[in-house]
Structures are given as C-alpha cells and as structure tokens.
Amino acid sequence: MSIAELSERPARVLLIGSGYDARSTEKQIEADLGLAQDVLRSRLASNELWTLFAQGPDRPSVRVMDGPSDFDERALLGWLFGGDLLAGYRIIPPEIHVDLPAKRSTLEAALTADPEGRLPELIYFAGHGERRARIDQSFFTLSGGERMTVAELAALFDQAAGGPRLLVHSACYSGAFAEIIFRRGDASLGLSDSVRCGLFASSADDPASGCSASADQREYEGFALHFFGALKGRKHDDSGALDADLDGDGRISALEAHAIARAHAETIDIPTTSSERLLRYFFDGRQGLRSDGNASQNERQGESRHKVTTANAFGEGEAHDLGGEGLEAGAETSKARPIGEGDPIETFVIAELERALRLSSKSEAESALQKVEASIHSLNEVLAEAKDELEREASRLEARILELSPHLADAWDRRFEPALRRHRRALRALFDSDAIEPIYQAF
C-alpha cells in the first residue's frame, strides 16, 4: 500500500496505533487494533478500512515480553541497568494486517484524502498520549518520535470540512481530544463548522490502562477490550455473550459500548465524551450571549447541530450508516425494553456502579471515597519507604556487578557478551544470595 493509493481510495474507517518507537509500541496496542479490525471488517468493504501502525507492515516494531520462567541473570541485568531487550523483551514484526506506518504524513494524507471531506467517518487511536498545560497542545504519539496535537488534529478536520466524524481514543489523557469540537481545538474560537464528536478512555488529566507488553493476552485489561467486545455483543475476555443493547432499540451503538467500558472495566480509566465537554462549554457561558442574555442565532444553531450529530454518531440516527447497521453498530438484538426512567444508558452505568461498589446514595459514595483516599495515602507512604529500600539494595547490587566488569551495564557494548560469559558464575552466585531476593521479587 502507498499514500497514493490511500488518496485514491479514502478510508471510511481509519485505525491508528503506535508508540514513539519499537520500545514504546507494546503488544497490547497491536492487539487492540486487531480487535477493532475483527469487529469492523464485517461491516465494511475490503477497501474501506485502513490501518496505520507503528513502522508499517513487516517491520520489527512491536515490543513483546515473554517473561523469564526461571531466574535469569540476563533479565535482572536488564532491569537494573535499563536494558529492555535484556529484561525478557523482544521486538517483533506486527502480526495484524497493516497498510502503512503510523506517521504524520500518512495520517494527514488519510484525513484529507476525500475531496468532499466526508471520510474517514470513524477514527480509532490506540497508543500513548501526553498532556500539556495548554490542553490544545496535548498529543498522541506517532512512529519515529512524531506526534499529533489536539490543535493539529482539529485543524486537519477544519481543513477537510465535512462529517460527521467520530473519534474513539483509548490512550492516556485522551479526553483532551474532546476539544476537537472547537475550531482549531480552541474553545475561545467557538464550535467548529464541521461536525465531529468523540469517545475517550480517560479524561484530559488522567492516564489510562492498556499498554501491556505481555505475550499472554489473557493478562490484558483496558478500554478497548470492553468497548469493541461490547460492539460485538461479547464480554471483554470473550468468555460469553453480553447484553449491551442498553436502550432496547435492537442494536449496540458506540455510546452503549462506551457505557459498558465505564461500568465494567476494573481499571484506572475515567471514560469521557465530547458531549460532556460540550455541556461544560455552554454551562461556562462561552456560547456568545448577547447583552440581553439570549444566545445568538448562530450559536443556537451550533448547539442544536452538535446535539443532533452527537446523537446520530452514537447510533440514535442514520449517520455513518453501513449496510443498514450504522458504523457504530455492534451485534443485532431482537428485544426492545426500557431500562428505566430518563436516559437508559446513564441509568445503566449508575446501576452497575452501585451494584459493583455496593453503594446506593451520594453520601455513601462520598464516605467510601474518603476511606479509599485515606487508605491510598497510607499505602503510598509504605510504598515510598519500600521503594527507597529497594533502590538502596539495587544500588549496592549494581556496584558489585560493575566491580566484576563495567561492560555488564550495556547490552549494546560489543564487550557485553564476553563479559557475561566470563562472569556468569560470579553473577549466579551473587544473584542466588539472600540479599537479592527482595529485588528479584520486585522485578
């Protein structure tokens, strides 16, 4: 595949995933993209889905950890001196289908390929994100040390005005990308002319789970597992069917899948939506009120347009229709029943959290939160002391190893392998001592 082909055949669905380089492109990032491919391929023509991943097809660019089954001096050297490739890691080529590398050039080409600005309709990003003091400068990672900021992505959407577009983003601080609903990602410039919305694994200020390098996918947990699992009507670990049609309309929307992740994922994630950001925008009084306190006609139209489009993109209308199911549709269902009064999706999330946490009122929740925060504070103090002790023991061990040979600290040094062979017996004796046990347990 080439950028020229992408320009000729704009993608309806664009999947993107990468770390800065192979060391930060963990196996779970690839697995999340593979899950998205499995769910969406059945609803798309073969040329409608494009995957931009890491360094591209067939390039060793995925970090995977098999983990030492027995005590391994090579692994411990890697842990002590920061050598990831020593510490049970391998760098392998991707095992999923990949069209192009996840570079700025390929992403920009994919987002601007459609002359009418309608495609892609769905964009999913898996990888890493970082926050900045200015929210529009928060970014997600691309291959080769590249990045895409909120402002840059919003500007690309502005350039390819069309839509509607749905962004699903599962990285740390992904909620920052809710700012794409504004021109150039800047709320002070007002709502965008083109229509876009987003579902995010976390808030703008919080990290997210889901970047394990483990080769054992049974160890994975994270937003994408619950989100895409729900879209196909399955539990996140594929252990059984899942009733994710929360509003009883006979299909599973992206918003319902997002609600499943909110309610069921036992992670650090705090999933958010662009709708929440839109509500804060109007609540904060940034809707351009005239002196008489009434919103201008343009702002009223903008509010209405974004509300309607957000609903459509979440599966409550006909936007993103693919084969009559809708882009965001998951497993079809035959039932039709209300969950409860008001918004059935929010009602579901609240009920599930009440059940899981065994809390039934705001006061109970606040009291439980205070107890948890106090416990966390106490545990953090214990953890800090343990880390200090671990660092002291590790420093002593490093010094003793370097007395054997300074070349044991650098696996890239051509003298490392000869030094390892020469001192293997001494290393084994050192690593078998009682002093190393707490360090090995921490490792």
Describe the model.
The protein is of the alpha/beta class. It folds into two domains: 3-59 and 94-357, Rossmann fold (3-Layer(aba) Sandwich), CATH 3.40.50; 364-442, no CATH class. The protein is 40% helix and 11% strand. It contains 13 helices and eleven strands. A six-stranded mixed β-sheet has the order 2-1-5-9-10-11, with helices on both faces. A three-stranded antiparallel β-sheet has the order 6-7-8. It has a two-stranded antiparallel ribbon with strand order 3-4. α2 (27-41) links the parallel β1 (13-18) and β2 (49-53).
- How many domains? The number is 2
- What value does the average pLDDT take? 82
What is the H-and-E element order? HEHEEHEHEEEEHEEHHEHHHHHH
Q: What fraction strand?
A: 5-15%
Q: Structural class given helices, strands, pairing?
A: alpha/beta
In CATH terms, what is the fold-level topology of the largest domain? Rossmann fold
Low-confidence stretches: 287-340
Helix content: 40-55%
The span between the termini is 42 Å
How do you describe this structure in short?
The chain is an alpha/beta fold and 443 residues long. It has 13 helices and 11 strands.
Layout of strands and helices, then pairs:
Layout: H1 3-8, E1 13-18, H2 27-41, E2 49-53, E3 62-65, H3 73-81, E4 89-92, H4 104-112, E5 122-127, E6 129-130, E7 139-142, E8 146-149, H5 150-159, E9 165-169, E10 196-200, H6 223-231, H7 254-264, E11 272-273, H8 274-283, H9 297-316, H10 344-357, H11 362-404, H12 416-431, H13 437-442
Helix pairs in contact: 2-6, 6-7, 7-10, 8-9
